[in-house]
């Protein structure tokens, strides 16, 4: 570290230490001005972020490491940048917005340094130092943001999968899963697992799988559906499939599966009527057990 | 390991034998269990057998074979076997393994299994039931 | 790395943090009938550690139970190696090895209903269906090696 560099570093450090609050205020203000930067993040949160980050920056600069590596090596500072970026990723801010938020801090910090010197050379050195310091923050922020978004996307697709296969309690001891759209193996497996768990939870006697909204299935999915029916039986409940469309009927027929073991009904209403018969106290079937 | 019994208690309720399989079931114990239960069905002149499997975290082909054999043997001796309380994950895995336990009667839980074996009073828990109110069960909607 | 399960402030790590060191493969001898239970326990523990859901745990342990029984009954005993896979995908790999008589007709052994022992003849084929990857090499008179893998779901 040259003497000049040390002097400039001390200058920025002092600005952060003595005028930290001003820097934080200015940064919050800049972010609020550019509404796009602060999507969904309240002023109070921005303020808290700013205080934490400014403190951490000051502390980081006092460490004996090269300016460009301060952000990544100082624990609190690094954490502050990660927290800030994740919060933006979570709030749905754009990547540009997130980078601009970090860039706005450069402006706020440089303004504060201006109060300490009017020497153009010194100001230029300070600007370069702030650049090196915060470019590292920008890079870390971007990296975190991307990872955060990926995590969110994964989580959302899982949630979507769950949402798209709701198990509803149609009647006392009767559950139904209305399936809509194309079924793939992953979704069918989620349906199976959710349905079986719901049967256990509700002590349901009949489960209706309504596939009126499913245009077609491939053989793998047809197999999974039939496995579901068998698993439901092993648990001691009955399974009724309703709304089988002609193409699906053909697929099932091509699999050479013995349909006599599977209860099917044309519509969900027919399936419910059948379910009520199955669970009825005076029904012809023996209460409580499924005989195959 | 060397004993003849499987260490699984078999209770008698009227003409029904009630028993449950434990999770740590090895092949040897499963075989011993089959033999013991078969003897008890005959000795007690049982008409029904309830096997609670709700504690089993795993049913592989050996246990599946045990359950199927028991069902057949019991039927030959004049008793009806109900396997109750199979866990969802176990049922799913068993089906994927290719085992449907053909011929084995199942029930959601021990209460419903007992109800099926004629112990209605044990199982009848009045709940928010509704189906009867709709009338004409099985009719067109 | 799951970034979202906890409060943001509680986050200890972030990008660039070192992944946890992979657990060393565990080797379990399958010499006696009790070893089948030991093998199941070890596989259950490893499946939980790998982050499998309940159904996947059951699949993996059931497959392990079938294959361990094969190793013991048909292979005359051998060993199971349990290995955690990290890399781009997480998973669990189980290797069953024996120096037994080997399998004369692999295709037949993989078909449902084929049995030379006390099971239901679903061991090998069933285990294949429960796992994502399945490899078997067998040489008559030299022994059998079955390698199965299941990946965690994204």
UniProtKB/TrEMBL annotation, chain A:
Phosphoprotein keyword on record: yes
Protein's UniProt keywords contain Cytoplasm: no
Tree of life domain: Bacteria
Alphabetized UniProt keyword annotations: Phosphoprotein
CDD domains in the cross-refs: STAS_RsbR_RsbS_like
Name of one Pfam family that matches: STAS
Gene3D superfamilies xrefs: STAS domain
STAS domain ranges (all copies): 164-275
Name recorded for this polypeptide: STAS domain-containing protein
Species of origin: Streptomyces physcomitrii
UniProt lineage: Bacteria, Bacillati, Actinomycetota, Actinomycetes, Kitasatosporales
TrEMBL record, chain B:
InterPro entries cross-referenced by the UniProt entry: Bact_StressResp_Reg, STAS_dom, STAS_dom_sf
First and last residue of the signal peptide: none
SUPFAM superfamilies: SpoIIaa-like (SSF52091)
Any single Pfam family the record assigns to this protein: STAS
Domain STAS: 6-117
CDD domains: STAS_RsbR_RsbS_like
PROSITE patterns in alphabetical order: STAS
Domain of life: Bacteria
PANTHER family per record: RSBT ANTAGONIST PROTEIN RSBS, RSBT ANTAGONIST PROTEIN RSBS-RELATED
Protein name per Swiss-Prot or TrEMBL: STAS domain-containing protein
Upper taxonomic lineage: Bacteria, Bacillati, Actinomycetota, Actinomycetes, Kitasatosporales
């Amino acid at each position: 570290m040259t003497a000049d560099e040390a002097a400039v570093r001390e200058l920025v450090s002092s600005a952060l230490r003595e005028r930290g609050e001003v820097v934080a205020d200015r940064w919050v203000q800049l972010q609020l001005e550019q509404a796009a930067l602060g999507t969904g993040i309240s002023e109070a949160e921005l303020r808290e972020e700013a205080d934490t980050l400014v403190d951490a920056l000051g502390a980081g600069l006092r460490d004996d490491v090269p300016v460009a590596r301060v952000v990544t090596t100082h624990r609190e500072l690094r954490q502050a940048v990660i927290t800030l970026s994740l919060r933006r990723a979570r709030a749905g801010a754009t990547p540009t917005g997130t980078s601009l938020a970090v860039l706005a801090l450069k402006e706020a910090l440089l303004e504060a340094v201006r109060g300490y010197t009017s020497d153009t050379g010194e100001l230029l050195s300070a600007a370069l130092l702030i650049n090196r310091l915060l470019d590292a923050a920008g890079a870390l922020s971007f990296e975190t943001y991307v990872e955060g978004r990926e995590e969110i996307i994964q989580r959302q697709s899982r949630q979507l999968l769950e949402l798209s296969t709701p198990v509803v309690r149609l009647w006392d001891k009767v559950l139904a899963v209305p399936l809509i759209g194309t079924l793939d193996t992953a979704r069918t497996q989620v349906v199976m697992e959710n349905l079986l768990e719901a049967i256990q939870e509700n002590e349901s006697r009949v489960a209706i799988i309504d596939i009126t909204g499913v245009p077609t299935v491939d053989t793998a999915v047809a197999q999974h559906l039939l496995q579901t029916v068998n698993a439901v039986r092993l648990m001691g409940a009955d399974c009724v499939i309703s709304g089988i469309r002609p193409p699906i009927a053909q697929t099932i027929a091509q699999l050479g599966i013995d349909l006599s073991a599977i209860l099917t009904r044309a519509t969900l209403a027919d399936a419910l009527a059948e379910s009520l018969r199955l669970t009825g106290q005076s029904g012809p079937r023996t209460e409580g057990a499924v005989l195959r | 390991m060397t004993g003849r019994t499987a260490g699984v208690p078999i209770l008698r309720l009227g003409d029904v034998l009630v028993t449950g399989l434990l999770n740590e079931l090895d092949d040897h114990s499963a075989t011993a269990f089959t033999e013991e239960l078969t003897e008890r069905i005959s000795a007690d002149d049982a008409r029904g057998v309830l096997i609670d499997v709700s504690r089993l975290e795993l049913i592989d082909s050996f246990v599946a074979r045990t359950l199927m054999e028991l069902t057949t043997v019991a039927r030959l001796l004049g008793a009806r076997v109900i396997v109750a309380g199979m866990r969802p994950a176990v049922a799913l895995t068993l089906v994927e393994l290719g085992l449907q336990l053909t011929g084995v009667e199942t029930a959601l839980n021990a209460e419903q299994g007992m109800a099926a074996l004629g112990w209605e009073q044990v199982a009848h828990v009045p709940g928010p039931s509704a189906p009867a109110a709709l009338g004409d069960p099985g009719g067109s909607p | 790395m799951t970034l979202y399960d906890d409060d943001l402030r509680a986050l200890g790590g972030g990008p660039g943090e070192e992944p946890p060191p992979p657990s060393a493969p565990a080797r379990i001898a399958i010499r006696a009938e009790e070893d089948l239970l030991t093998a199941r326990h070890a596989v259950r523990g490893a499946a939980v550690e790998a982050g499998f859901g309940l159904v996947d745990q059951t699949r993996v342990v059931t497959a392990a139970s079938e294959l361990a029984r094969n190793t013991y009954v048909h292979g005359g005993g051998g060993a199971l190696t349990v290995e955690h896979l990290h890399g781009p995908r997480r998973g669990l790999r189980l290797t069953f090895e024996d120096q037994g008589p080997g399998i004369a007709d692999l295709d037949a052994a993989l078909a449902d209903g084929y049995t030379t022992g006390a099971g239901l003849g679903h061991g090998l084929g069933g285990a294949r269906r429960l796992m994502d990857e399945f490899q078997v090499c067998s040489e008559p008179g030299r022994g059998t090696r079955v390698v199965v893998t299941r990946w965690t779901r994204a």
